[in-house]
Amino acid sequence: MRVLVAGDRGYIGAVLVPLLRAAGHEVHGLDLDLYEGCDLGEGPEDIAGRPPVDMREVEPGQLAGYDAVLCLAALSNDPLGHLNPDATHSVNLDGTLRLARAAKQAGIERFLFASSCSLYGAAGSSGVTEDAELFPVTPYGETKVLAERELSLLADDNFSPTYLRNATAHGASPRLRLDIVVNNLTAVAMTTGQVRLESDGSPWRPLVHVADISRAFLATLEAPRELVHDEAFNVGRPEDNVQVRDIAEMVRDAVPGSVLSFADDAGPDLRNYRVDCSKLETVPGLELRWSVRDGVEELYRAFKEHGLEAGDLTGARFQRIAQIRQLMDRGEVDAARRGRLPALVALEDVGGDFHCHTDLSPDGTAPLEVMVDAARARGYRFLAITDHGERLGLGGASRDQLLAQRARIRALEARLGDITLLHGAELNIGGDGTLDYDDEFLDSFDVLVASVHDRLDQPREQLTARLIAACEHPAVNVIGHPTGRRIGSRAAGDVDLEALYQAAARTGTALEVNGSPHRLDLGDEQVRLAHQFGVMLSFGSDSHGPGHLANMRFAVATAGRGWTTPDQVINTLPMGKLRDFLAKGRKGR
Questions:
Q1: For residues 127 and 135, what is the distance between their CA atoms, to the nearest angstrom?
Q2: CA dihedral 211, 62, 51, 317 (to 10 degrees)
């Protein structure tokens, strides 16, 4: 195959490219080369004369003639993500999607994405499989979740993405990193004689050698398409799910004279997870060969051979965060596509959530008070309670139940005094465009979200007419998840979005950016088009339990990729202006 590797000059790419070539593939690279000179020994192959390329600016014509794209390029690791979350999203998410869309337009069928097991976050000590719920706890992990979701939406008969969720890498590479746990502990032990843990060593980590990551990419590239199409694979060996203290003991054993110690304030790390890698065993011809102990011993030999010194541990040469900070200071890495974007909406701009269910909804899991406490813990100024209407077909709330809930909401709001509670409902838009309940009752709510939940296979004109009818209702404020898609299980309805946008702008109805990882609806390109029509957006987490309120970050990230500014989102409005917007055509408002 003719293969393009994005990020070929990085830690993994420097090992992967020679392996692909040895297997008979023609390999080319695309890289900004941010880590030039960050080498152990001779470094990657010489590419004198090849210009750096930013995948955020790649065009389909640059990819013509390739059979596959392997996307490794990213600002990698959690501390780096916290250093500049905007840059992390810009490179890891926007760049990945720009590359993938260009590849698809260029007719490239195979797209392999270097994802990460860090998207499981704080999953705990039970091994998680690829279908587990995702709990990223860092901007880096969030970008991997969002990228996978968006890539899955591109998958079709002509474009086949695969997601390799690599465990934490270790091992020697011509382009060395010392900011990953095994490599760092080994380097510190060899140069200082100390194996020092800043945590208590209890968290679990799945680990995988960089050469085995490369073997997984090669085997997946060569695997039958039907086996890997739109599939995620945890990459690692079952026996290499280890606790951090076990890693430290292996390092102590491998480095003569080293001593294991713990920081005085050592405590557990939030990143605590094990992964089940059995699905990877279905990929033909793949054999992972490196244990963690083998990797530690290899690193010790490499460090001795190349004369690693204590000063190398903190400088920019082997510490990605130090290198990127240095480049940022020089203006060589930007947070927002080389300064061409406006000041985009950020999570701290969001004052509250417009899509929240309680246990009054058949699929809600927590009572009103728990959901409100979770919103207060997030610092929200307001929360809209929007339980399902009675016509959903799942046992939604009756009129009497909603009236009783309204009384509870008013009493709770008065008692708390620090959050505005908006009583609402998520109405089902019927097949003929009608809504739950009578108009007089609908007029009494603070906010109403109207959504299509069924008959998404209607013809384009009929489905669009349902949504426009909801926009034209004087009490409807938000159209929820406008296309109705559920990622991986249900395609979007055939909606005439331009007609919907015109209706929303004309009637003063906001369109939702739904932050549920199963929806992300509207998507980023749809958001960008909506702005051309002057549509206001509403951010909703689609929460059915308190933990789901964190989905707001995905709504913000999706809207940011659509170039959304705070003034285009009703969640950012001060309460007076928000109430004016929500009044819409309600009588007496």
A1: 14
A2: -30
Strand order in the sheet with 241-243: 168-170, 204-209, 241-243
> Domain of 137?
2-329
Q: What is the pTM of this model?
A: 0.71
DSSP label of 127: E
Among 350, 289, 286, which residue's Cα sits nearest to residue 560?
Answer: 350
Instruction: Give pLDDT, residue 306.
Output: 86
Q: H or E stretch including 242?
A: strand 241-243
Show the tokens assigned to 35.
């880590």
Q: Are residues 294 and 364 in the same domain?
A: no
Q: Which residue has the tokens 């899509």?
A: 355
Of 299, 329, 359, the domain-final residue: 329
d(CA 317, CA 328): 15
Residues 255 and 393 in one domain: no
Structure tokens at 203: 């968290």
pLDDT at 414: 97
Among candidates 149, 227, 229, which has minimal Cα distance to 486?
149
Burial of 94 (0-12, 13-18, 19+ CB in 10 A): buried
At a CB cut-off of 8 Å and minimum separation 6, what does 521 contact? 481, 482, 483, 484, 485, 492, 512, 513, 514
The reply to whether 334 falls in a domain is no
- 336 inside domain: no
Q: CB under 8 Å to 269, separation ≥6 — which residues?
A: 199, 203, 244
Burial string for 480-496 (b: 16+ CB within 10 Å, else e) reads bbbbbbebeeeebbebb
Cα diameter, the chain: 81
Mean pLDDT per segment of 10 residues, for the chain of length 589 residues? 95 96 96 78 71 88 96 75 66 92 97 92 76 83 91 96 96 90 92 84 90 98 97 96 92 94 68 88 96 96 88 70 62 46 82 97 95 97 96 79 97 97 96 93 97 94 97 97 89 95 97 93 92 97 96 88 91 96 80
The reply to whether 411 falls in a domain is yes
Q: Tell the burial category of 444 from Cβ atoms under 10 Å away from its Cβ (0-12, 13-18, 19+).
A: middle
- What is the per-residue pLDDT for 522? 95
Angle between helices 497-507 and 524-532 (to 10 degrees): 50
Distance CA 447, CA 426 (A): 9
Confirm whether 427 is domain-assigned: yes
Q: How far apart are the first and last CA of the chain?
A: 65
